[in-house]
Amino acid sequence: MDRLPASGIARVRALFTTHNDFSDITPTQYDAAYAWIREAGLLDEPDSVVPVEHRVFEAAVAHSGVPWFRDADLLVRRPDELPEDALRAAETLGLLPEEAYAQVSTAWGKVDTEERSRIGSAGELALVELLSKSAEGRVEHVAAWSDGHGYDIFVDARQHSAHLEVKTTVRVGRLTVYISRNEYETMLRDPAWELVTVRLTPELRIRTVAAVPREWIADQVPADRSAQGRWESCRLDIPPEIPVPGIPSIVPILVSTAPEMLRGTPRPG
Description:
The protein is of the alpha+beta class. It is built from nine helices and eight strands.
């Protein structure tokens, strides 16, 4: 049975390098191509004003499974840094490198936003569940009903409280988080605020928990240069040596059976 190449980028090249009348495509290839076009969402907006070649290229990149796309924000920062497979697909579609770069950025932004939302929600829920079993007092997932607090989880017990802003990842070698202006200003005025990083397994179970010192955060965020300019969101690439294992602010209210990952362990030296 004839089969199209597995990746979206390869499919673009296979489809658009054939004759205009598609006379050399087998019925199996045609059906597979149509199925891919449908699955990629290219049939959802037939009246879209976006040129079809741009839409096809963006969909191909987003559904390609190529290893570089996941870290495209770091690996592809200029048109001349586009990988060879993306350049060949762009050329097939008649796109300039600058146009291809714009579509890669657009595709990565959409996928990254969706993935951060999915992983972030999973991390918050997993930590709420773990804290509910491990800490005395009340544990409330305030982000479930309002995002204006500047933190996600409220823990309160014995005149001790913690306001936890949770950032989650499933990656092992890279920790990148986004902090909003509201979260940062909450940190500045709220001594109970703490930034907690949760690393999940691919099955969305908690692997590790750590806290990022507020002093480090304050040193990294940008500064407003005038009253006419104000940052609202900041990306932080956190080096592996910065997070402190556990959640220091809740250690005093942990029950005796609480897992060690919440208590943390002192670092050597």
